[in-house]
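Entry 12.
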Amino acid sequence: MNNNYYCIRTDNNPELNEIIIALLSDLPFDTFEEHQDGISAYIRVTDYNEGIEAEVKRLHGQLQIKCSMQEIESQNWNELWESGFQPLQIDDFCAIRADFHEPMKNVHYEIVIEPNMAFGTGHHETTRLMIQQMRKNHFLNKRVFDFGCGTAVLSILASKMGATEVIAVDNEWPAFESCLRNAEMNSTPQVKSIHGTLLDVHYGDFDVILANINRNIVVSSLQTLREKLVPGGQLIISGFLGSDEMHVKNELLQNGLVYQNTMKEGDWISIRAEKQLTDI
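Predicted 3D structure (tokens):
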């Protein structure tokens, strides 16, 4: 299997970074890195095709930005992230670090991961928003589903917060492998990793569902996600911009999910909703 990546590097006003990331998030790019003069977006060579190339060119023309592309070997890719990965601490609640960093003190939960994917390490606003939402939720003795688990940061946190079972699914093979390794590294056997899509999760009766992906996937999956929740169960979602808030709220309502709150960081938001006690 070719595990090499293409890096699409943009040259643009940094004020456009969030917009570019949001647009590319609807494509199979799984990692983004922001710079002072643009972003780097990473996609596996095997996922890149003429359709993706056409969308990148359309974005280039629409926003009048410069783009360049280079191929990065898988080994160099991992070395790149390991060399640049910095520990992250969210107040006294949660800390995320690599195994080569010193333990972080004075936090309730410490998560150790292999820093081979940027999206899901906690450094992106949406992951931090999900963690802040989780901070306000109860996970003790709960069954949890992490849809699009990435590096399994959220799955591991839910487990450390007392969840009895966490089903973590991702359709990217590197993410699936990363989830397995990170769950073992954190001694969280409650995390059960599945390589596949939502259709491959033959489970239900979840107390909490976490979904940090993108607006289109979340919205198109709402009916199935609702069906997998127990009455009164919580759905915590992110991966979309503040400008999408009303659209997502309307979709939640149409699918029998009651809006609870919105949290915001920069241009990104996270929404928490609840399944109606009386199903529609």
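Annotation: The chain has two domains: 5-81, 125-275. The two ends are 45 Å apart (CA to CA).
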